[in-house]
Amino acid sequence: MDVLEAIRRRRSVRQFRPDPVPEEMIRTLLDAARLAPSSYNLQPWEFVVVTDPEVRRRLRVAANNQAQVEEAPVVIVCLGSLRQQDALAARLEASLPPDAPPERRERVMKTVQRHKHDPEFRKIHVLTSTYIGVAFLVLAAQSFGLGTCWMGGFDPDQVRSLLGIPEDFLVASLVAVGWPAEGLEFRPRQRRPLEEIVHWNHFGRRPDWEPVTSQ
Ligand SMILES: Cc1cc2nc3c(=O)[nH]c(=O)nc-3n(C[C@H](O)[C@H](O)[C@H](O)COP(=O)(O)O)c2cc1C
């Protein structure tokens, strides 16, 4: 399946067959995430793969009781590493030569300070790249015909304590993975039309396109 086909076929799947997903496939999904681009090559993603039914049952409780968390044979808990963020800040600082001109020193140190100490910036920086890894993972799953449901609806503290996730990892997303239930029917996709979201050369200037109607 090519990438465009995977993108077009992917829908959020919330009902699964109980059949297991071969470990080799899970490995391939995680490897696709690993190959995603990231800011400064940060690679903040780490994953807790949950297959144990009892852990999935408890994870469901932490995820607003969403049934797919228990029903999918695999739930991948996607984490963003603040340790990687700290390592990046240290790398940036170390990259500054001792004889750097004051102007450059000031600019780099301002960047380093944000990367080291600004909690909001750090969180957004780590999560942005983590989500790109998650998107790659979800598309890789689609290429095998696996269904996924990307979830942001969970209590991060409950997930953290259930899985023993250290404080310096952000719980970014849960992804339910499994074989879609037989006969699943999806509602037509709700998407804003291209004409509404694309500007050409200048905000508000629209391309002269026929409407695109891909579902
Ligand atoms: C960041 C994020 C968080 C989401 N959280 C949930 C969730 O907690 N539960 C759920 O059932 N779907 C969740 N979804 C799935 C969206 O509802 C879904 O992608 C959207 O409605 C479009 O439908 P589609 O994925 O079938 O194209 C989430 C998707 C993303 C990207």
Give a short overview.
With 215 residues, the protein is an alpha+beta fold. The chain is 47% helix and 13% strand.
Q: Provide the list of bound ligands, each named once.
A: flavin mononucleotide
CATH architecture: 3-Layer(aba) Sandwich
CATH class: Alpha Beta
Largest sheet: 4 strands, antiparallel
Straight-line distance between termini: 17 Å
Number of helices: 9
Mean pLDDT across all amino acids: 96
Give me the CATH fold name. Answer: NADH Oxidase
**What value does the Rg take, in angstroms?**
20 Å
Briefly note the structural class of the backbone.
alpha+beta
- Give the % helix: 40-55%
Quote the beta fraction: 5-15%
> How many separate structural domains?
1
Number of strands: 4
Summarize the helix and strand pattern as letters.
HHEHHEHHHEHEH
Word description of this protein:
The chain is of the alpha+beta class. The chain has a single domain, classed as NADH Oxidase (3-Layer(aba) Sandwich). It has 9 helices and 4 strands, in the order H-H-E-H-H-E-H-H-H-E-H-E-H. Helix 1 crosses helix 7 (119-143), helix 3 runs antiparallel to helix 8 (156-163) and helix 6 (102-117) crosses helix 7 (119-143). The longest helix has 25 residues, at 119-143. It is globular and about 65 Å long. The mean pLDDT is 96. It binds flavin mononucleotide (FMN). Residues 11-12, 14, 66, 149-153, 189 line the site of flavin mononucleotide.
